[in-house]
Amino acid sequence: MVKSLYRSLTIVSLIRMTTFHENMTKEKFFVEWFGLTEGKEIGTNKPPRRNWTDNPQEFIDFVKMCNDECENKEFCRPCWISSQPMRYIKSEQKYGYVRKIGEACAIEKLFFDFDDDTKYCSKCDEFIKKDELVKDKQRKGSFCPKCGTQCFEKPRKEIVANDVTRFITGAKEMCKIYNFEPIPFIVGTRKGYHVYFFLCEIFKFESTNFGFAKMLYKQMQDMLKKDEFEFMDRRIIGDLNRLARVPLTRHEKTGKMCQVLDENLNPTKVRSLEYYKLYGIQLDFIKDAVKVVKKLEYEKMLKKKEQLEKFEDEGIKDDSYPFKGMIRPCFTVRMTKGEMNHAQRLAWLSEIYYAGYNTEEKMLELCRKTFNDFTEKESLNQIRDYFKHERWNFRPYKCSTIQSKGWCIGTEACANEREIRIQNTNKAESI
Q1: 114 dihedral zone (left: phi>0; alpha: psi -120 to 50; beta)
Q2: Which residues are paired to 87 by β-bridges?
């Protein structure tokens, strides 16, 4: 009863702390935060954890659910939403839950996350970085790598605030080159701050241009953060599908509201997001970022072309590989069926590369003709990953490796073909 009363008083006090500009309300703000482009992914610590929706009312109901429910003696559930608009991709069933999966389809704002990602060791009187902490499966918690003492969170928001202030000042100075001064949307979190710079116009893109959009997003973020910041989360740079805490929702561990702040990091009135878009990132800034990315893409293409030409001159003509120019029966039999498991498909890419399908276009066309479940996007992603990591430097699997994986069909034709090619190779080497 006492705890219930405490929670009620906490909620009332948090509501009183939040003030709204003119006719703005909390519900109107949530509708604006959700946006009108395609949809968003919303998430919490309850299965299915994250789920795509295009219904603003479903998002508002989700916020209420997160506020009212709790577990593990916490105040509520965490409430997250994708930082960018998302289109629906597919549904999947996992652990008994059906989840709708989305993918970013537009750049609405540039998102930066600042927080103190350390834990404090009272014995050493030091703050230990998350990656340096020692995990112990037998004991819950994180432990100091020096003395073994259990470490706890002790956020240093005043130091994080210095990073945020310096970042915003630098970003504004940078934008003055383009004759505008953006106004950031800032949210106070438990251990730090979320900083958003809205674009004056939403940059939409097709699914096939996701790679380019990701590079553009990173380029615009990099243009604003000219310096390095100790407390900036580097994982969010270039991450279009990132989820972030919903403003004006409570933190599950403290029950405190994630307030909207001004540039001095003090609570301020909640305005319409149109205000931040009006004073947002202007088109000249975006156009310059596009030019840089196009130049990088062109240079990358030239480099890849040079690498492929060099490899074709030096590597593909290497007669020591006995199956050059052919696809072995253990792969062709599955190509005929139009079915392969994931591991086989990855191995198949090297197989067809050495068979002469040595460009993205040739590989994609063969995928289109081969697989019953062909999807251009997934196939292109795998092919691009193959070239990106220069996997053409590695020869296809040996027959012994294929046999160990259970893929060998053991046909006499395959054995004869292999023997003939080995004999030809030996003859060439003797000559």
Answers
A1: beta
A2: 103
Question: 10 Å Cβ neighbour count for 263?
Answer: 15
Q: For position 301, what pLDDT does the model report?
A: 83
Our measurement of the distance from residue 113's CA atom to the centroid of its chain's CA atoms, rounded to an integer in Å, reads 14
Tell me the pLDDT tens digit for each residue of 178-225: 999 999 999 999 999 999 999 999 999 999 999 999 999 999 999 999
Helical pair 329-337 and 412-430, crossing angle rounded to 10 deg: 140
- Quick check: 100 and 50 in contact, CB under 8 A? no
Residue 291 near residue 46, CB atoms below 8 Å: no
Residue 34: HSE in the Cβ half-sphere, 13 Å Cα cutoff: 24
Q: What single letter denotes the amino acid at residue 351? A: E
Diameter of the chain measured on Cα atoms: 93
Q: Residue 1: how many CB atoms within 10 A of its CB?
A: 5
Of 222, 225, 218, nearest in space to 172 by CA: 225
In order of 150, 153, 331, the CA distances from 133 in angstroms are 9, 12, 46
pLDDT at 394: 81
Exposure of 20 in the CB half-sphere (CA atoms within 13 A): 13
Instruction: Name the CATH topology of 2-116+155-294.
Output: DNA primase, PRIM domain (3.90.920)
327: left (phi over 0), alpha (psi -120 to 50) or beta: beta
What six digits make up the tokens of 247? 């403003």
DSSP structural state of residue 38: S
Per-residue tokens: 325: 């120019």
What are 13-38's pLDDT values in tens digits? 444 468 999 899 999 999 999 998 89
Query: How far is 165 from 183, CA to CA, in rounded Å?
Result: 13
Does this model's pTM top 0.85? My answer is no
Tell me where in the chain the CATH 3.90.920 domain(s) lie. Answer: 2-116+155-294
